[in-house]
Design a protein that fits this description.
Helices cover about 45% and strands about 25% of the residues. The chain is of the alpha+beta class.
Amino acid sequence: MASEITRNYDLPRLLCLGKRVGDTFGIAFCEAWRTITAHMKRILSFFTLLLLAAFLRAEDTRCYELRIYTAKEGKLAALQARFKDHTCKLFEKHGLTNVGYWVPVVKSDNRLIYVISSPNRSAHKKSWQAFLNDPDWKKAYKASTKEGALVAKIDSTFMSATDYSPTVESVITKDIRVFELRTYTTAPGRLKNLHARFRDHTCKIFENHGMKNVAYWTPMDDNKGRSNTLIYIISHYEKPVLSGTAQAKKNWRGFAGDPAWKKARAASEKDGKILAKAPHKVFLNPVDYSPIK
């Protein structure tokens, strides 16, 4: 049987090798066969590239850190100036990648929210210590706090990217957009169900309603919600007649009313609710020194 398959597979090639000059049918047949094999090679090359791309898009193993600084009254501008003029550059000097920097849309909210990353948790710790020990940082810190501390509170969460998170990269769009940081806390044992719903349905439906998926993470540490927390950032583009937050609310209404979302939610909750409480959200504007805008 194997020999028959081999002979059948080689037949077109043998016919071409044995064709006579002037044999019109043979020449046409061989030309057609060469065209077919050329197309097959291109198709195989294409699928090889797809497989390579999938391999390169393998799981993001970087260590991300979400840091939220609550500035002292009247000190947010000075805190931002320190980041813009000194801190961001020193982060990069010591191997910490600046991912994004934002401030809440609500003016009374005096927080600076940012994300940095490094190859892994160990490298992150080493880079952070090198940053703290840098004479340039000490000098900048001393100069910026000569009239008092700038920060009242710091909250830090180390995070891992989910398997469905887009590649986190610096993107500055020509259109103005507002960002949204959302935190979901699930009922015990239900985080995997939330991930499945986002992976299979929610992220795609977001895009259908003008909501750009930026990044999705879960905390690394138990005391930060490793087993029950999803943290993500999406963005909404402003429209000529709508502000960013107004457009965001319109996008959310469209999403909530989408039959595909209703179906996915009902199916995912047939054995019980997934979320333990309502999501926490904050609308954000990127600062002028943010790599993502």
